[in-house]
């Protein structure tokens, strides 16, 4: 009769009937890096979530995304100058300002207002641009504020469609297409902007 060496006995041979516990392992380098990356991503997203939940103050949305243009049309003209009219609506919580306009139909455009001068209607560049109030609208109408085409490149014929791009104070812009219509009224005189103001 012989006995097994002590080193070769199993756990059960010594009377211990419970299975051996697996050794405790520590996360490897790859697992630690993955956990750290998830923590950094979650931490970085917290300011964005807080910003999205804040209320009041000035909206961070681009002005162009908050503006809609409707009832747009352009006065027919053979040469020289013409004008575009429309309703511009602002759905944001802050005022939006139209500061410039362009169109392939003319060499340049200006934002105009109409004022009374010596008993006559006079149109001139609108200082500061066109303001569209928060949750409000601005109307471009004959005899009032309008977008002026200066130095037409070709006649604007009735029924034609012409694109107009308006630029906002935040640097964004939106383009709309307007139909050319006959209109004989509102023959205002034009008072160009002084040279010191870029006219």
UniProtKB/TrEMBL annotation:
InterPro entries: LpqE-like, Lxx211020-like, PCuAC_sf. Residues 1-33 are annotated as: Disordered. SUPFAM superfamilies: DR1885-like metal-binding protein. Pfam families: PCuAC. Signal peptide: none annotated. This is Copper chaperone PCu(A)C. It comes from Nocardia cerradoensis.
């Amino acid at each position: 009769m012989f006995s097994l060496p002590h080193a070769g006995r199993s756990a059960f041979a010594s009377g211990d009937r419970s299975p051996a516990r697996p050794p405790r392992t520590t996360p490897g380098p790859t697992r630690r890096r993955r956990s750290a990356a998830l923590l950094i991503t979650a931490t970085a997203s917290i300011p964005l979530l807080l910003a999205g939940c804040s209320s009041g103050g000035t909206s961070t949305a681009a002005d162009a995304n908050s503006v809609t243009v409707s009832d747009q049309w352009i006065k027919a003209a053979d040469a020289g100058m013409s004008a575009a009219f429309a309703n511009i609506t602002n759905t944001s919580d802050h005022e939006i300002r139209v500061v410039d306009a362009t169109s392939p139909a003319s060499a340049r455009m200006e934002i105009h207002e109409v004022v009374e001068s010596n008993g006559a209607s006079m149109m001139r560049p609108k200082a500061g641009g066109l303001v569209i109030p928060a949750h409000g609208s601005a109307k471009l109408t004959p005899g009032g504020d309008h977008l002026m085409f200066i130095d037409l490149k070709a006649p604007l014929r009735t029924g034609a469609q012409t694109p107009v791009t308006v630029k906002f104070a935040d640097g964004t812009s939106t383009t709309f297409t307007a139909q050319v219509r006959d209109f004989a009224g509102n023959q205002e005189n034009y008072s160009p902007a002084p040279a010191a103001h870029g006219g």
